[in-house]
TrEMBL record:
GO terms for molecular function: methyltransferase activity. GO terms for biological process: methylation. Keywords: Methyltransferase, Transferase. It comes from the Eukaryota. This is S-adenosyl-L-methionine-dependent methyltransferase. The keyword ATP-binding does not apply. It holds the Pfam family Methyltransf_23. InterPro entries: SAM-dependent_MTases_sf (IPR029063).
Length: 276
Protein backbone atom coordinates (compact mmCIF):
# COMPACT_ATOMS: atom_id res chain seq x y z
CA UNK A 1 0.00 0.00 0.00
CA UNK A 2 1.16 3.48 -0.84
CA UNK A 3 2.64 5.30 2.11
CA UNK A 4 4.48 8.55 2.47
CA UNK A 5 5.49 9.77 5.92
CA UNK A 6 2.32 11.02 7.58
CA UNK A 7 1.95 14.05 9.85
CA UNK A 8 -0.29 12.31 12.26
CA UNK A 9 -0.14 8.79 13.57
CA UNK A 10 -3.89 8.79 14.12
CA UNK A 11 -4.31 9.85 10.50
CA UNK A 12 -6.65 12.63 11.49
CA UNK A 13 -4.91 14.62 8.74
CA UNK A 14 -4.30 12.62 5.61
CA UNK A 15 -1.69 14.63 3.69
CA UNK A 16 1.93 13.44 3.89
CA UNK A 17 4.48 15.20 6.09
CA UNK A 18 7.83 14.75 4.36
CA UNK A 19 10.39 16.92 2.56
CA UNK A 20 8.47 16.70 -0.73
CA UNK A 21 5.34 18.03 0.98
CA UNK A 22 7.24 20.77 2.83
CA UNK A 23 8.80 21.94 -0.47
CA UNK A 24 5.32 21.92 -2.01
CA UNK A 25 3.89 24.01 0.84
CA UNK A 26 6.68 26.57 0.48
CA UNK A 27 6.03 26.75 -3.28
CA UNK A 28 2.29 27.05 -2.52
CA UNK A 29 3.14 30.04 -0.32
CA UNK A 30 4.90 31.62 -3.32
CA UNK A 31 1.76 30.96 -5.39
CA UNK A 32 -0.36 32.68 -2.72
CA UNK A 33 1.91 35.72 -2.91
CA UNK A 34 1.44 35.83 -6.70
CA UNK A 35 -2.33 35.63 -6.26
CA UNK A 36 -2.32 38.49 -3.73
CA UNK A 37 0.14 40.60 -5.78
CA UNK A 38 2.88 40.12 -3.22
CA UNK A 39 0.77 40.73 -0.10
CA UNK A 40 0.57 38.29 2.80
CA UNK A 41 -3.11 39.00 3.46
CA UNK A 42 -6.14 40.99 2.35
CA UNK A 43 -7.13 42.23 5.83
CA UNK A 44 -6.42 45.97 6.11
CA UNK A 45 -3.85 45.53 8.86
CA UNK A 46 -2.24 48.73 10.05
CA UNK A 47 0.99 48.87 12.02
CA UNK A 48 1.85 45.74 14.01
CA UNK A 49 -1.17 43.92 15.45
CA UNK A 50 -0.13 42.84 18.96
CA UNK A 51 -1.24 39.21 18.90
CA UNK A 52 -1.46 37.14 15.73
CA UNK A 53 -2.47 33.50 15.28
CA UNK A 54 -1.66 31.48 12.14
CA UNK A 55 -3.90 28.41 12.16
CA UNK A 56 -2.52 25.20 10.60
CA UNK A 57 0.80 26.94 10.01
CA UNK A 58 2.40 24.04 8.07
CA UNK A 59 6.08 24.84 7.54
CA UNK A 60 5.48 28.16 9.32
CA UNK A 61 6.43 30.16 6.24
CA UNK A 62 3.52 32.64 6.46
CA UNK A 63 4.03 33.18 10.21
CA UNK A 64 7.75 33.81 9.68
CA UNK A 65 7.15 36.23 6.80
CA UNK A 66 4.49 38.09 8.79
CA UNK A 67 6.66 38.21 11.91
CA UNK A 68 9.65 39.54 9.96
CA UNK A 69 7.75 42.55 8.62
CA UNK A 70 5.78 43.13 11.84
CA UNK A 71 8.48 43.05 14.52
CA UNK A 72 6.04 44.53 17.06
CA UNK A 73 3.62 41.61 16.66
CA UNK A 74 3.76 38.39 18.64
CA UNK A 75 2.94 35.65 16.14
CA UNK A 76 1.90 32.13 17.14
CA UNK A 77 1.91 29.50 14.40
CA UNK A 78 -0.08 26.46 15.51
CA UNK A 79 -0.24 23.08 13.82
CA UNK A 80 -1.17 19.50 14.54
CA UNK A 81 2.38 18.51 13.59
CA UNK A 82 5.70 20.05 14.72
CA UNK A 83 7.08 20.54 11.20
CA UNK A 84 8.27 24.12 11.66
CA UNK A 85 11.88 25.31 11.90
CA UNK A 86 13.37 25.48 15.39
CA UNK A 87 15.07 28.78 14.48
CA UNK A 88 12.57 31.60 14.31
CA UNK A 89 12.40 35.35 14.73
CA UNK A 90 12.16 36.37 18.40
CA UNK A 91 8.52 37.41 17.89
CA UNK A 92 7.40 34.13 16.25
CA UNK A 93 6.66 30.95 18.17
CA UNK A 94 5.33 27.63 16.99
CA UNK A 95 3.00 25.44 19.00
CA UNK A 96 1.66 21.96 18.43
CA UNK A 97 -2.07 21.68 19.03
CA UNK A 98 -5.31 20.45 17.51
CA UNK A 99 -7.50 23.34 16.36
CA UNK A 100 -10.53 21.08 16.16
CA UNK A 101 -10.42 20.69 19.94
CA UNK A 102 -11.26 23.35 22.55
CA UNK A 103 -8.82 26.24 22.08
CA UNK A 104 -6.77 26.98 25.20
CA UNK A 105 -5.80 30.53 24.21
CA UNK A 106 -7.14 33.54 26.09
CA UNK A 107 -10.57 34.73 24.99
CA UNK A 108 -10.81 38.14 23.23
CA UNK A 109 -7.08 37.99 22.63
CA UNK A 110 -5.91 37.87 19.00
CA UNK A 111 -5.84 41.00 16.85
CA UNK A 112 -5.40 39.01 13.64
CA UNK A 113 -6.24 35.35 13.03
CA UNK A 114 -5.04 33.90 9.74
CA UNK A 115 -6.10 30.52 8.41
CA UNK A 116 -4.93 29.32 5.01
CA UNK A 117 -5.38 26.02 3.14
CA UNK A 118 -6.77 23.96 5.99
CA UNK A 119 -9.80 22.92 3.95
CA UNK A 120 -8.60 19.33 3.71
CA UNK A 121 -8.43 19.17 7.50
CA UNK A 122 -11.30 20.98 9.22
CA UNK A 123 -14.45 18.93 9.70
CA UNK A 124 -16.56 21.37 11.69
CA UNK A 125 -16.33 24.86 10.18
CA UNK A 126 -19.08 26.10 12.52
CA UNK A 127 -17.07 25.27 15.61
CA UNK A 128 -13.79 26.42 14.01
CA UNK A 129 -15.13 29.90 13.17
CA UNK A 130 -16.94 30.19 16.53
CA UNK A 131 -13.66 29.55 18.34
CA UNK A 132 -12.00 32.18 16.15
CA UNK A 133 -14.69 34.65 17.19
CA UNK A 134 -14.34 33.85 20.90
CA UNK A 135 -10.57 34.24 20.83
CA UNK A 136 -10.46 37.34 18.61
CA UNK A 137 -10.12 40.71 20.35
CA UNK A 138 -12.83 43.31 19.69
CA UNK A 139 -12.06 44.94 16.32
CA UNK A 140 -9.77 42.10 15.26
CA UNK A 141 -9.48 40.77 11.72
CA UNK A 142 -9.90 37.13 10.76
CA UNK A 143 -8.83 35.93 7.32
CA UNK A 144 -9.78 32.57 5.81
CA UNK A 145 -8.03 31.64 2.58
CA UNK A 146 -9.22 28.43 0.96
CA UNK A 147 -9.27 26.96 -2.52
CA UNK A 148 -11.81 24.84 -4.33
CA UNK A 149 -10.96 21.17 -4.62
CA UNK A 150 -12.35 21.05 -8.12
CA UNK A 151 -11.27 22.54 -11.42
CA UNK A 152 -13.34 24.71 -13.73
CA UNK A 153 -13.09 25.74 -17.36
CA UNK A 154 -14.67 28.68 -19.20
CA UNK A 155 -14.01 27.77 -22.84
CA UNK A 156 -15.10 24.12 -23.26
CA UNK A 157 -11.52 22.83 -23.55
CA UNK A 158 -12.15 20.49 -20.62
CA UNK A 159 -14.16 17.49 -21.87
CA UNK A 160 -16.64 15.80 -19.51
CA UNK A 161 -14.25 12.81 -19.55
CA UNK A 162 -11.35 14.97 -18.34
CA UNK A 163 -8.98 13.17 -16.00
CA UNK A 164 -9.17 16.22 -13.75
CA UNK A 165 -12.88 15.60 -13.15
CA UNK A 166 -12.22 11.89 -12.54
CA UNK A 167 -9.50 12.76 -10.04
CA UNK A 168 -11.56 15.32 -8.13
CA UNK A 169 -14.63 13.07 -8.10
CA UNK A 170 -12.53 10.40 -6.36
CA UNK A 171 -10.91 12.93 -4.01
CA UNK A 172 -14.30 14.36 -3.03
CA UNK A 173 -15.64 10.88 -2.29
CA UNK A 174 -12.55 10.00 -0.27
CA UNK A 175 -12.61 13.16 1.84
CA UNK A 176 -16.31 12.82 2.55
CA UNK A 177 -15.42 9.55 4.31
CA UNK A 178 -13.43 11.73 6.73
CA UNK A 179 -16.45 14.03 7.08
CA UNK A 180 -14.73 16.69 5.00
CA UNK A 181 -17.15 17.95 2.36
CA UNK A 182 -15.08 19.94 -0.09
CA UNK A 183 -17.86 20.35 -2.67
CA UNK A 184 -19.59 22.64 -0.14
CA UNK A 185 -16.70 25.10 -0.38
CA UNK A 186 -17.75 28.40 -1.90
CA UNK A 187 -17.59 32.03 -0.91
CA UNK A 188 -21.19 31.66 0.36
CA UNK A 189 -20.20 28.69 2.55
CA UNK A 190 -17.36 30.53 4.28
CA UNK A 191 -19.29 33.80 4.53
CA UNK A 192 -22.25 32.08 6.18
CA UNK A 193 -20.02 30.39 8.77
CA UNK A 194 -18.32 33.69 9.57
CA UNK A 195 -21.70 35.46 9.86
CA UNK A 196 -23.12 32.72 12.07
CA UNK A 197 -20.07 32.97 14.33
CA UNK A 198 -20.77 36.70 14.80
CA UNK A 199 -18.28 38.38 12.46
CA UNK A 200 -19.30 41.58 10.67
CA UNK A 201 -17.92 43.61 7.74
CA UNK A 202 -17.13 40.42 5.83
CA UNK A 203 -15.38 40.87 2.50
CA UNK A 204 -14.98 38.09 -0.04
CA UNK A 205 -12.33 37.99 -2.77
CA UNK A 206 -12.41 35.27 -5.43
CA UNK A 207 -9.48 34.51 -7.74
CA UNK A 208 -9.13 32.14 -10.69
CA UNK A 209 -5.84 30.26 -10.46
CA UNK A 210 -4.80 28.54 -13.72
CA UNK A 211 -3.38 25.02 -13.82
CA UNK A 212 -0.74 24.99 -16.55
CA UNK A 213 0.72 27.64 -18.80
CA UNK A 214 -2.34 28.09 -21.02
CA UNK A 215 -3.20 31.73 -20.13
CA UNK A 216 -2.08 34.32 -22.64
CA UNK A 217 -1.17 37.07 -20.20
CA UNK A 218 2.33 37.03 -18.79
CA UNK A 219 1.10 37.32 -15.18
CA UNK A 220 -1.31 34.39 -15.39
CA UNK A 221 1.02 32.24 -17.51
CA UNK A 222 3.62 32.61 -14.75
CA UNK A 223 0.98 31.89 -12.09
CA UNK A 224 -0.08 28.79 -14.05
CA UNK A 225 3.53 27.58 -14.22
CA UNK A 226 3.99 28.00 -10.47
CA UNK A 227 0.61 26.36 -9.82
CA UNK A 228 1.71 23.39 -11.97
CA UNK A 229 4.81 22.99 -9.85
CA UNK A 230 2.68 23.00 -6.68
CA UNK A 231 0.24 20.52 -8.21
CA UNK A 232 2.95 18.27 -9.69
CA UNK A 233 3.50 16.74 -6.25
CA UNK A 234 0.18 17.96 -4.81
CA UNK A 235 -1.89 15.74 -7.10
CA UNK A 236 -0.09 12.76 -5.66
CA UNK A 237 -0.03 14.13 -2.09
CA UNK A 238 -3.81 14.51 -2.04
CA UNK A 239 -4.75 11.73 -4.43
CA UNK A 240 -2.71 8.62 -3.74
CA UNK A 241 -3.37 8.40 -0.04
CA UNK A 242 -7.03 9.33 -0.47
CA UNK A 243 -7.73 6.89 -3.28
CA UNK A 244 -5.83 3.91 -1.87
CA UNK A 245 -6.51 4.23 1.85
CA UNK A 246 -9.93 5.81 1.86
CA UNK A 247 -11.46 4.37 -1.31
CA UNK A 248 -9.58 1.06 -1.33
CA UNK A 249 -8.34 1.54 -4.90
CA UNK A 250 -5.31 -0.42 -6.11
CA UNK A 251 -2.14 1.65 -5.91
CA UNK A 252 -1.42 1.11 -9.63
CA UNK A 253 -4.85 2.48 -10.59
CA UNK A 254 -4.55 5.51 -8.28
CA UNK A 255 -1.03 6.21 -9.51
CA UNK A 256 -2.17 6.02 -13.15
CA UNK A 257 -4.90 8.62 -12.48
CA UNK A 258 -2.41 10.96 -10.79
CA UNK A 259 0.18 10.55 -13.56
CA UNK A 260 -2.36 11.18 -16.31
CA UNK A 261 -3.62 14.27 -14.50
CA UNK A 262 -0.10 15.70 -14.15
CA UNK A 263 0.60 15.00 -17.86
CA UNK A 264 -2.66 16.66 -18.89
CA UNK A 265 -1.91 19.69 -16.74
CA UNK A 266 1.54 20.13 -18.32
CA UNK A 267 0.16 19.75 -21.85
CA UNK A 268 -2.08 22.74 -20.96
CA UNK A 269 -4.64 21.94 -23.65
CA UNK A 270 -7.42 21.95 -21.05
CA UNK A 271 -7.80 25.52 -19.82
CA UNK A 272 -8.59 24.64 -16.24
CA UNK A 273 -8.35 26.65 -13.07
CA UNK A 274 -9.35 26.42 -9.44
CA UNK A 275 -11.06 29.09 -7.39
CA UNK A 276 -9.29 30.60 -4.43
C1 LIG B 1 -2.10 22.29 3.44
S1 LIG B 1 -1.27 22.68 4.93
C2 LIG B 1 -1.31 24.47 4.91
C3 LIG B 1 -0.16 25.09 5.67
C4 LIG B 1 -0.17 26.62 5.81
N1 LIG B 1 -1.40 27.13 6.36
C5 LIG B 1 0.13 27.33 4.52
O1 LIG B 1 -0.75 28.00 3.99
O2 LIG B 1 1.27 27.22 4.04
C6 LIG B 1 -2.45 22.30 6.21
C7 LIG B 1 -1.83 22.26 7.59
O3 LIG B 1 -2.89 22.15 8.55
C8 LIG B 1 -2.44 21.32 9.61
N2 LIG B 1 -3.61 20.77 10.32
C9 LIG B 1 -4.47 19.84 9.88
N3 LIG B 1 -5.42 19.60 10.80
C10 LIG B 1 -5.13 20.39 11.87
C11 LIG B 1 -5.73 20.57 13.15
N4 LIG B 1 -6.82 19.88 13.50
N5 LIG B 1 -5.17 21.45 14.02
C12 LIG B 1 -4.05 22.14 13.65
N6 LIG B 1 -3.44 22.02 12.44
C13 LIG B 1 -3.98 21.15 11.57
C14 LIG B 1 -1.62 20.25 8.90
O4 LIG B 1 -0.74 19.58 9.79
C15 LIG B 1 -0.91 21.07 7.82
O5 LIG B 1 0.34 21.52 8.25
Amino acid sequence: MYHRKSSDENEQYFLPADETEFDRLDMAHHLQLLILDGELHKAPIQNDPANVLDCGTGTGIWALDFGSIHPGSKVIGVDLAPNQPTWTYPNVVFETDDLEKEWTYQKNHFDFIHSRMVGSAIRDWGRYTRQMYEHAAPGAYVELSEHSMWTYCDDNTQPPTSISLTYFTHLTAALSKLNIHTRDFSSRFFRSHLEAAGFVDIQVFVYKVPWGTWPKSRKFKHMGAVCSEVCRTGIEAYGLMAMTRLLGMEESEARAICTEFVDTMYKAKEHIYHLQ
